Amino acid sequence: MSNKELTKEELLLKVKALEAVVNNVGSYIYTKDINGCYTFVNHAVESVFNEASEGIIGKDDSHFFDLDVYNQLKINDQKVLSEDTLISSEEVNLIKSTGELKTFHTVKKSLTNDVGEIIGMCGISTDISQQKELENTVKEQNKLLDAVLNNVDAYIYMKDEQRYFRYVNNKTAEMFGQSHEDIIGKLDSDVIGEEMANHFWESDKLVFETNEKQTIEEVVDDGEGNLRHYLSVKMPYKLNEESQALIGFSTDVTELYQLKEEFKKQANTDALTGLYNRRYFFKHAAKEFSRAKRNKLDMSAISIDIDYFKKINDKYGHPVGDKVLIEMSNNIFPNLRQEDILARVGGEEFAIILPDTTLEKAKAVAQRICHTKNTFVVDTENNETIEIQVSVGLVSMKASDQNFDDLFARADHALYKAKELGRNRVYFDL
């Protein structure tokens, strides 16, 4: 006996060791003959079939699997039994003895004799049912999450601290006019342009610097000269031990912003003429008065009343009276500077604040307003017109004025003086 030959006992030990490995490897190991009948199975196969090896050897898979429903196993076997090849694939099998549906990752290899003829096959299958179930659950959850994120009325995105997009929902992709594939993994400036990307980055970096949620109102030019307003909530998200990202939710609140501005405008303006109303006038005038007092600046105020306005209303009706007020408002405007404040403070009463204006300069403004020819067509068929005339009171701030109410009270007094003197004139209080 040579040194390389093993005794019978040694061979038996090796076989037993091999069997121990095969039976404890945690996978299903088996061999089949050229007809697809089992010639060897390990304990795992016995367990899944709920049958001892004696009841398995010599039988094909039709005894153990429902091959009419799931036939990938049959297709793979036929391939390795007809071609000398190796197959690695997934197989879904319905086990007859238990009714269980299992998914296996299977590797199958042809077995050949010394002359290369196929005499059978060997296989090793790993049960991946739980893994597949988990994968399917994750897919379903991702599908559900995508459905939610893609149908919510918000722009949702993820960016990392290097400013690369990690995720965008459909609404964001549509706004950028690009596909998801063209956005994800790209630098923000490559997707939306450097100027806009830098604009958004100002609030993005606050998230990374503070590691706290940020709520910001962002304003962006839509490229057509219109400003879009977004309410954005951006929160930090840890990708891994070394990388940070942010998740952003941006809602277009442009219509809400415009509505808010409209409410603000309505609160500050007269609905008929579009001029500032009494409330805004006195609020703004008080600020201008304080500024002028503090900085020792000039300030003048004009009070205007349409002469005989009640007679116009009584004779022609309120619709004509309203048109007179509108016409008067339009005719006063050309005489004013941008910084001057014109308001309708009563029925037919108007008032003007002239910041940084001396009495002499304010006189010229008041005279122009008073002497502007205001004619108004009342009856187009008869070509009947009326001429609108006004009385004007003018004052400039004095050291004795403690507040704007003192100043305006003098302007009103000057207005009544103009009326007493015959109307259609300017009276100024020295």
* Fraction of residues in helix: 40-55%
CATH architecture of the largest domain: 2-Layer Sandwich
How many domains make up the 3D coordinates? Answer: 3
What's the arrangement of strands in the largest beta sheet?
A: 2-1-5-4-3
Shape, please? rod-shaped
Class by alpha and beta content = alpha+beta
Q: Can you count the beta strands? A: 17
CA-CA gap between termini: 140 Å
Low-confidence stretches: none
Tell me what portion of residues adopts beta-strand conformation: 25-35%
On the 0 to 100 scale, the average pLDDT is 89
Largest sheet: 5 strands, antiparallel
Q: How is this structure best described in words?
A:
This protein is an alpha+beta fold and 430 residues long. The protein folds into 3 domains: 123 residues, PAS domain (Beta-Lactamase, 2-Layer Sandwich), CATH 3.30.450.20; 105 residues, Beta-Lactamase (2-Layer Sandwich); 161 residues, Reverse transcriptase/Diguanylate cyclase domain (Alpha-Beta Plaits). It has a 5-stranded antiparallel beta sheet, with helices on both faces. α11 packs across α12. The longest helix has 23 residues. 24% of the residues are buried.
Main attributes of the structure:
430 residues; alpha+beta; Beta-Lactamase; Alpha-Beta Plaits; 28% strand
Quick overview of this protein structure:
The chain is built from 14 helices and 17 strands. The protein has helices at residues 8-24, 43-49, 72-82, 129-151, 170-176, 180-183, 188-192, 194-210, 254-268, 278-295, 309-316, 318-332, 359-371, 404-420, and strands at 28-33, 38-41, 86-94, 101-112, 118-127, 155-160, 165-168, 214-221, 227-238, 244-252, 299-306, 341-344, 349-355, 374-379, 384-388, 390-396, 426-429.
